[in-house]
Amino acid sequence: MAVKTLDNKRNRLLMATALFLGLGAVPFFAPPFYVVFLNDALIIACLSMSLNLLVGYTGLISFGHAAYFGLGAYACGLLLKSAGLPFGVSLVAAGAFGGLGAAVAGFFCVRLNRVYFSMLTLAFSLIFWAICFRWNDLTGGDQGLSGIPYPNLTWISQMIGRPDFSSAQSYYLVSLVVVAICIAAMWIIVSSPVGLMLRTIRENEQRSTFIGVETRRVKLAIFIVAGTIAGLAGGLFAVFNRGVYPDFMYWTKSAEILIMALFGGIGSFWGPAIGSLTLLLLHQETVALTEYWSFALGVILLVLTLRFPSGLWGLFERFTNTRRSK
Amino acid sequence: MELPSLSAIGAQAVSGLTTAMLLFLVASGLSLIFGVLRLLNFAHGSFYMLGAYFAWQFNTWLQGSFWLSVLFAAIATGVLGALLERVLFRKFYDRPELMQLLFTYSIVLIVSDVVKYIWGTQQLGIRRPEMLSHSFKFGEIVLPSYNLVIIVISLAIAVGIWLLLQGTRLGKMVRAAAFDREMLSMLGVDVRMLYLLVFSAGCFLAGLAGALVAPMSAVVPGMDADIIISLFIIVVIGGLGSFWGTFLGSIIYGMVFSFGILFIPQFSLFAVALIMVVILIVKPEGLLGRENTR
Question: Considering only the top CATH level, what class is A2-325?
Fold first, then answer.
């Protein structure tokens, strides 16, 4: 049995490495248009996976996750534009600001349960949003923060021997590495004893305190981790799109991330990533045909909540299980 | 900082109270639905928006018969709510919270685009009825009569709901359903019918408020996403499921928002969100709520 789990683990690691290398190869042969799309998709996938640490693994329904994405985005953008710091430093700071915001909000949020937890996360996200929306001098208010300088990434294109690479293509590689590190960190967390504690809390918080789990501390820790990763994703997103807008943090954005996670399947590690990729593709195809994307998304969500609460990943598992049992 | 004049303060108080009373009409439905059905309904703001659009539509058809349009709009919203309750909402009463939240959000998304499809994205407006387009003057203070009428109507409805809940058999059943729905159904009450009624009444009130607000502010897509946040702040301040708590929450919200615009125009939004956070931290069951939250 032990050998089998080891094998399983090695297989998964191999598959993840193959995925990483495959994604890394994309800019070498795919047209730039796809690289731009995939860059955003990677970042958003990472964002919804970080939310899944809370919703799927710990059972904490955060309705304000976009706030930490936005905090990271504003922090990174401002440090690059106004303070003139280097890109690497600003990106780390984006993660730090996301984590800091999550630490402040999480300290209070983890004391509440169920709907009240969701409400408080929503309330904090409104506060962060209101600050960024109204602090015109610093954040540009409702006009947003535009004209974030693009980092000079020629060293990357030179390092890989492709001086013809555009900055977007090089940036994609940076995103990929950062996202991969985040995903690896999340994987280590959920497969460690801490990950087991998270699931125990989700199943029965009271009983997990009985067996000695300090639930509040564990919940706060995972809230901060999720916020940090969201902040990093925000920083990556802001620089690539050269702007940050208060909409990034509005509550509808938080709902959107939650939908992506649910669509892919919050019962699994990779589900949210698949969900966000699929929804982003659908979005791109739909807006080319019609302006009624909200309607389409609403119908998808309605069918999902009515019929397939375990998402795409759940469907996939059900399909493979029935095939295996035949 | 220069102190605003008395007339400015009076005008802000009236406008704050008007906002508060309109919000109360919508929030009382949200709060009642949460208290009885245990459902946190993101789509409640959508019914408010639908009420405003219905009012515009009826007003166009009836060629300016304002009060009839308001009444029809509220009834139409209530009927639509009842239909949706029967077909969809009912299926979610016993589901996990996440599914409930996202289901009601799916209704928000669908309604927002249906509204855009039918009525377009441009602003629509209704003219105030002729007899209510003037203002009263008390010394320096100018009071628009339409606002006063709204305040009076809303107060009357608030008292009416309270009397209904306290004094009638139906009200007793509603309160009992909020307390223990299984026991109530064992006593032979048709709880499903009661839920339908409560949901539909909440939608009626939301539609009524939307119709009443139409002459004061533009009828536009996006009314739903904005008001639902105000509603959540209100019910959290007062206490989810508490009737007078919702009333108090509405007054606080309306006043803070209104005077916030006068004193700290940049941060009135921030101020109300901060109140919500503080209440949730200090007394998560709300000022007048009794819910077990921890």
Answer: mainly alpha
